[in-house]
Amino acid sequence: MTVLDATREMFRRDQVWPFLVDESSAVDVSHNMILYVEGLSVSFDGFKALNDLNLYVKDGELRCLIGANGAGKTTLMDVITGKTQCDQGSVYFGQTINLLQRSEPEIAQLGIGRKFQKPTVFEAHTVFDNLELSLKADKGIWYTLRASLSSEDIDRIDDVLELIGLKEQRFMQAGALSHGQKQWLEIGMLLASDPRLLLIDEPVAGMTAQETERTAELLTSLAGDRTVIVVEHDMEFVRSIARTVTVLHQGTVLAEGTMDEVQNNRDVIEVYLGEEAGEEAGETA
Amino acid sequence: MISLKGLFGEKSAPTAGSLTSGFTSRTTAIVVVVLFATTILASAANLWLSPDSPLYVSTYTITLLGKYLCYALLALAVDIVWGYCGVLSLGHAAFFALGGYGMGMYLMRQIGDRGVYGNPELPDFMVFLNWESLPWYWLGMDQFWFAMLIALAVPGLLAFVFGWLAFRSRVTGVYLSIMTQALTYALMLAFFRNEMGFGGNNGLTDFKDILGFSLQSDNVRVALFAITALMLMLAYVLSHFIMCSRFGRVIVSIRDGEARARFMGYRTERFKVWLFVYSALLAAVAGALYVPQVGIINPGEFSPINSIEVVVWVALGGRGTLYGAIIGAILVNYAKTRFTAIMPDGWLFALGALFVLVTVFLPKGIAGFIEQRVEAMRGDSGSGGDGGSSHKQQNAEGASA
Q1: Is B252–A189 a contact, with Cβ atoms under 8 angstroms apart?
Q2: What is d(CA B182, CA B304) in angstroms, rounded to the nearest whole number?
């Protein structure tokens, strides 16, 4: 490349210099897609946890991920939230933000919230403090040293407390809550952070039927404003909330569609019920 | 509007105390008042009572108390990283000793030509080693302000570099403890070498004055004790505010679930480095105050067992409560003073036994026991003013040495 070409490249009028691009800018969903996962592969010591996985999630969608143990559901969440490095592929949040270049705190600050499989709340803190720490705010050291709650913050925490039904327990230590309440508190912590995309790993594990029903209502009401991706084993629950279901198997997408479509999908039946059932289903179909 | 007001009122009180039970503004006030009263009374009893009076406090006791308070400050530093952030540092004596060496270098330069060899420029050990001139890192150490700056900057910088490397690589738990232990051991070996220019295994000693005042005079001893008490109070109040801020709650969150805190958007490694440096600075201040009072600093202060002892004080006193660390440090060191006078060889066994007994019978340390008693008393009489009396008792025990 000659000096002239280099100079031309440098002063191209159709793009700005990389360091001028505003990295922190809000997620660009102009094509109505919030998450692009393409050709993603992750392997641990030769075991392929994810194998050329492709997944596209629309803005405002409620998506359920299902699959047997080891299908790669949690690994996928780990990659999206920056916990696990991938070997190949790309993960974009909106049109512009490459999630693979970001660390976990950066990704969280972009507005991707995550709920773990095992409820993890800060047990030594009160319910209120747990929510306060999750609020969408500056998470830097100097800010947190002198941060105080504004009345909007308190209102926001109150709203969340109302929503998750822990108003009575606001000053109780989170460690003293029941299992189901901890699950709710963790969902509440996600809500307090006002995320664009929620990744929720097994929200109803260990919940009573009634609690499960309320969780389903809550998640359905969230979709629209926010995008929700739920990993769940409980098929009844998935049926009650899902509009689109993605089935993962051995690190790739096996099928995608509505619950009924997926349940009648030949590949899915084969994987779930074994070869024979698959053949039978094929014959009857 | 009214409901909002009520909210504010409700909010402010429980949040201050919600970090760990009993860690409130009231305990801080009690600690500060007790420390202040002890300092004033002991100093007055030393300076103004005649030695025949039954209430007279000897200068030896004053120095001993000053030493205990230095240890208390060191214990506070360890409690901050261990009790609140779950970073078990087994190398905090290194920061303490580095602070001490900074002060020691200043005190060496203050000797001037009153040393054994009468060299106005070089400390005795350098003359002995046939050194011609001061090494570059001794330059400027005859200025008090500069020496204090170095005494804080070096441990602070070491803590920053160590913490930055360790926390960024996400080294935690036992591995981190071993690394801190290795750090202090390496420094000990380095400081034992004569070529380092810090007096080898003899260390720095034979100090004469500080800021032109003789270290042997009662007034200076009392002043050093009072300054130590003041620094401890300041450190306590500052730590209280840090731990009560949102920052402090993030720190506790990191202790209980670092991954969760990271997914909430907190850069946990930065929080940990910051806290580690703060803690190292407190340890350095303790070391710098310790040296003029005991009159010597040598590489033995870096020895790994010292750092482990500090952890035992904190565990005994009750980790995660700032005052527990102070009580633990004072009680254990008082017991050490007493015990080593009776049976010098038995002390480590006694310390071990004490540690085992407290772990079995008082898993939350002395602080946990006090809180239990206070709560029981509150339950009985409904009055909450009894927290102070048990405190005073603990401190009185330490003060009667």
Answers
A1: no
A2: 8
Reference B276, options B156, B172, B179, B168; nearest CA is B156
Fold type of domain A27-284: Rossmann fold (3.40.50)
User: Which phi and psi angles does B394 have, rounded to 5°?
Assistant: -60, -45
What is chain A's mean pLDDT, rounded? 86
CB of A274 within 8 Å of a chain B CB? The answer is no
Residues 83-122 of A with CB under 8 A from B: 83, 103-105, 108-109, 113-114, 116, 120-122
Six-digit token pair at B393?
Answer: 């008792």
Burial of B275: CB neighbours in 10 Å, binned 0-12, 13-18, 19+? buried
CA distance A276 to B258: 47
Express the helix, strand and coil content of chain A in percent, nearest 5 each: 40, 25, 35
Task: Please give the pLDDT value at position A133.
Answer: 94
pLDDT single digits (tens) B332-358: 999 999 999 998 888 888 888 988 888
Residues 6+ apart with CB under 8 A from A24: none
Q: Which of B33, B36, B87, B72 is nearest to B322 (CA)?
A: B72
Enter the pTM of the model: 0.87
Q: Determine contact: A153 vs chain B, CB below 8 A.
A: no
Flag whether residue A151 sits within 8 Å of chain B, measured between CB atoms.
yes
What residues of A are in contact with residue B274 (Cβ under 8 Å)?
Answer: 141
Per residue in A144-164, pLDDT (tens digit) is: 998 888 999 999 999 999 988
Mutation site, B263, B266, B267, B271, interface A, largest A CB count within 10 A = B263
Contact A142, A117 (CB under 8 A): no
Contact assignment for B274 to A141 by CB distance below 8 Å: yes
Phi, psi of A2 (to 5 degrees): -75, 170
Bridge partners, A229 (sequence order) = A63, A199
Residue burial A144-182, b: 16+ Cβ < 10 Å; e: rest: beebebeeebbebbbebbebbebeebbbebbeebeebbb
A-chain CB neighbours of B253 within 8 Å are 122, 125, 133
Is there a contact between B327 and B111 (Cβ–Cβ < 8 Å)?
no
Element (H, E) at A52: strand A47-58
Distance from B253 to chain A by nearest Cα, in Å?
A: 6
Residues of chain B in contact with residue A144, where contact means CB-CB under 8 angstroms, are 245-247, 250
Tally Cβ neighbours within 10 Å of residue B197. 19
